[in-house]
Amino acid sequence: MAAKPPPRPPTTPTGPSTPPAPKPRIPLELADAPTQRLYLFAAFLLVQALKVADLLAPAAPNAAAASSAPTSLLLDLINSSHLLKWIAVDLFAVQVVSWLRVPRFDWGWKALWLGRIALVLLDWLCFGSWTFSASMLLPTFLKSLFVSYVSTGERSTRLSKVLGNEHSHLGGQYTVHILAVSTALLNPISTCYCLSSAPKPEPILVPLILNNTAPSKLTYTLTSFTDPPTSQLITVPSSALVRPSHAAPTSEHNEDDDLPSWAVVPAASSAPRHRLPSAARDPSDPFDLSPSESLYYLPVTAIGSVRLESVLDAEGVPVRIRRKRGVEGWEETKIVRCPRAGFELKEGKKEAHRCLAGVAPESWSLELAVSGQEPLNVKWHSKEGDSPRRKSDGLDGIVGGASTVKDGIVRVPMNVSLVRAGRTTYFLDSVVDGCGNEVSFAGQSSSDSTSDSTGNSQAVVLSPSKSSKKARPVLPGMVDSRSVVVHRPPEIAFAGQCGRGEDVKLLQGKKTTLEIRLSGVEQEIEEERRRLRSGGKQGEDLWTVTVKFTPESGKSTTRDVQTSTSVVKLDVQEAGSYEIVNVKSKWCAGVVLVPSTCTVVLQPYPTLLTTFESLYDVCKSEIGLVSTLHFTGVPPFTVHYDLIEHGRGKPRTTRQKKRIHSSREEIRIEPGPGEWETRFVQLEDKWYNNVKLPAEAQYARKQKVQLVGDAQWRNAKQKRVVHSCEGETVSVDVELKGTAPWDLEYAVVGQPKQLITGIKSTPHSIDIDIPESIATRGGQFFLSLESVKDGNGCKRPLTTASDLTVEVQRTKPTARFHGLEGARSVVIREKDSAKIPVRLTGNGPWTIRYQPPPHPSRPNEDAPAQEIVAEKHNVDINLSDPRAGVYTLLSVRDEFCPGDVTETDWTISTLPRPSLRVEEKAGVVARNGSIIRKAVCEDAVDSVAFAFDGKAPFKASYTLSKGPQPAERHQLASIQSRADLTLYTGSAGHHTYHFTGVGDSLYTDPDAAGLVAPTSGRRGLLRLEQDVFPLPSASFLHGPKHGFCVNDPLASRSGDDLILKLEGQAPFEVELEVREEGHRTPKAFTIPNISSKEWPLVLPLNLHTPSAHSISIRRVQDANGCVRLVDSAVTKGAARTSLIVPVAEIASIAPVLPSVDACVGDFLEYVVQGAPPFTVKYSFEGKERSVPLQSSKFSRLAAEPGQFKIISVGHGQDQCRSNEVNLTKRIHPIPTASVQQGDSYVVDIREGDQTEIIFAFTGTPPFTFTYSRRKPQDRSKDKTVLETHTVTDIQSSTYSIFTSSEGTWSVSYIADAHCSYPPARQIDGASRLLKN
């Protein structure tokens, strides 16, 4: 059984301590996550495709069963098996997906249970035993459109097609209009309008509301505002009026996008904003039109007062003019010139520049001017630099005086104070005149400041709109924005070294740079950068700096430096004084700060002065020199010198250098024996590099160094160790230098000196006697060199030579087996490895000899000795597959001497192996050594006893061979010494059990060495063989070919009717069971000695009741004595162990409703008694038809008028037929009713008049109909019924009424002597038959 998978970690990380998510079962290296998800999705689709195929497959198990027409019990059993099968498959699939842990498919438990519930619900919907029709969820009007039925003519048709629609039975409507009084109202919200100043302004559109009429033409009077005023009468045809447009808004967004649709007209362009009067109605829809009112716009292209004089409708009838009364009489619509504003350009430029100087702020005039109907209000805002913040300001109630008005333009004196440096821009926002007309400057362009484009065309009423490129609210010659830039005077001073008050060093032949810094210029620099980024050209520099130069000798000079940056780099190549005289910009003069003067001095080259002195040893031999150095310049100094070796062919040069931090230094040079020349070649200080020194005598010195005598111990730093095995002296080496021969003095520390003379070669070996006190017991002593005399006769003391340390050791090595007395042993399993611990003393490496125990096959012979080499004091003798017995330690030797051995014995013992034997009664031993077990039947219980010997728990391994199949590996485990092996009888065949090994708690791996063969068997072979007989089987090869009738015997009627198939060893004995549907107690029958394997069923039983009978196989036994008990609920493959025998009685049919008359669209319904399927024969209009029926209900849709008659009814294939049937139905057509011959008729009448409405009918009198009145449907969508009337017992085909009420008249119900429309019988209450 597979282990339960670990719980899934939480999906939401909780921090660093959250455990990692479990890895997928299939490694991602083998198949990545998308591939695994693709395979799972493909497998899911395959399972669903198999499910659909199973759903669409025939319900009967085979053709025979289908032909026998199984009852509902068999269908329920089949559907139940399908349902359980697919539920098990889907639940297993969900479990597999969860177990695989594929990324993104590793759902939580909630999602898994939701998936299981959804799949089980889907399986129940597909294979469950339930009844459902999709039409049950459809409304009545949709059922008639999509559900098809079988008609009396055996054609599939829809009920809606048979019944028709409402217009085919209830046609036409009669609409009556009562004419009302017509009125006209101009400018209903009393708004004052303004006209643009453009040369060809677009007209002003004044709203005109008409009630209950459409105009043909109108007349209005236009009176000017001049003194004296002039008037003119203007006539406008209806074609010149403008109707509102409800076009969708454009994608461009501005402040007017939220306007109502009534404010948009086809010629919409730019217009000013109009303020509604305080007494106006809802601003979102100021007109508040009623259903009878319509909106028009009157275009006006002149300034003045407009008065509506007359309006004529389409018939030439005058329309009554409605007027409003104002303070000074009847109101008239005023149209004035739109307000304008602008900034004058007195200096000719939009941008002015000022210099910030002093403490008091400077004043600057905006030069504001306005024009329009007084009083005027103007608003503007200002922005400083690129800041998004804006400061709003404005003036209200501007009225011109004699001194401020010129050409209708009012000039407003407006000054602003300049207190901060930077750019400030002033923008006009809007201007409002005395009538409330507001003009916005948002989006206006002032690039053309001199053109007179002052018009602002107006095509939107009461609202602003998009700006026109041809009309701007800016006064001619003016602009809508102005800027002033306030500059801060620049400040300048020296920076860097000069700023710190230091002199600047100028190197000879070089240049240096002086740093000058400007402050307070950040704004100008940023402005220049912004101008260049916006595409401006590189202009002249922003500042000019004047610098005065005074040399150490000569006249002073000045020069100007141009710059556009805050830091100025001034290159100089002469020493002297540099002074900043002045700085200025384009707009302001600057200020010179301190320090304003900088001094540049010339730095001289460094120099070197040298002296040399020779170095001598005790024998007055020259061994080197000392050089004294004197520097001028700035430290640190670096001096470079060459050591040149002569006398060995071509001179060899070595370059040396030394860094010096003072002005005087000594250098000691000892190059060694030979001819040498020392020469100083190069000098450096803080300021200058690579200053070459001339090839003069003061910088060079030659000398010859002699070779002198010397001596030292070889490897004096390493300790010399002497062991007793090597004798009583020690040999040491000494290395000598100088001219041979040498005389050498040395001494053992603490003893007199010793002299060796005439040494001719180096190195020289000396044998030293070990002191007696150390030679016997060991220790250490020291050797020292005293003096050396070379061949030149010069004797030198060796005071610097190191002493040599000599150590003497006198110990012998030892070896022993580690462990206490009696504990030097170990117990192991056979063929296991073992370790014997050994402890050593002395100096490694050691050579150890030991002797293993004798070989078991030769116990009287000693085994050969073994030898190992050890590097450490604690070692183990590693033995692989050691022999049991005593191991003896023979000898030991370390690096220098042989040693002694103690505790020389070590014992190794082995544990006994387990064994396995079979009981003697298990079977008979064959010639091949196998135990032959008695044969048994399939699925019988059989076991064999085995005995274990060893230490529990035990286990034995064996293989099971089932006939030709590959052998299977198994294990027999037990905690006791006796165990029973249950033999496999699950399948028939020859089974062989071959034991391969046995193990216990000590020998955990089973081994064949412990297998004990039975008596007279083969040594080491433990094998068991057994034959298993198959169980017999029985199934129905053929079911009933036809159904049975009442009183028929239950027996096979042909070679393919009720045939029983048997498998096994003949003869057979079969037990059958017959159960009548609805009865608990079945009847059992036992048939012995059946020799044939295909037996026709013959039972001593007659069928007396018209109900289904089930035949089931309960038991079958063959000649081997094997018995199979059959469960009919469990079916293996296609084998059937039970079947249903239908028994039918004589079929009969009766109508659901006793009435003889029916209508087109009705369902003709009958109930058939008997066992389905049935065959029904009927005739319609003289044509006979035979129809198969699978249920007990028979229904047909009456699709046309005529006579319908049932002739006969019987079971499937005309069995048990009833021929004396005579049921007749008369089908009548549906009546119709129409208004004015089915047309939609509209009539207009005056108040007090009447009109006649005529209704027409078709069908069989007498008629009954219902008519109703609604609001006029051509003007209103309100379906509310205002009145309803029903008239009965009409014997003629027409009927009329008179009315003076306004509305739409129509018929809602019609009935004749037999039928009605809409049908009185609801569709949902009738039984229906879908198309077969």
Automatic annotation (TrEMBL):
Pfam families for the chain: Ig-like_POM152, Ig-like_Pom152_1, Ig-like_Pom152_9, Ig_Pom152, TMD_POM152
Boundaries of every Nucleoporin POM152 immunoglobulin-like domain copy: 603-705, 937-1006
Nucleoporin POM152 first Ig-like domain mapped to chain residues: 183-324
Biased composition (Low complexity): 445-454
Record domain Nucleoporin POM152 ninth Ig-like: where: 1148-1225
Start and end residues of each stretch annotated as Disordered: 1-26, 379-398, 442-474
Chain intervals with Polar residues compositional bias: 455-466
GO CC list: nuclear pore transmembrane ring
Ranges of compositional bias, category Basic and acidic residues: 381-394
The Nucleoporin POM152 Ig-like domain, residue ranges: 490-598, 812-905, 1231-1316
Protein name from the UniProt record: Nucleoporin Pom152
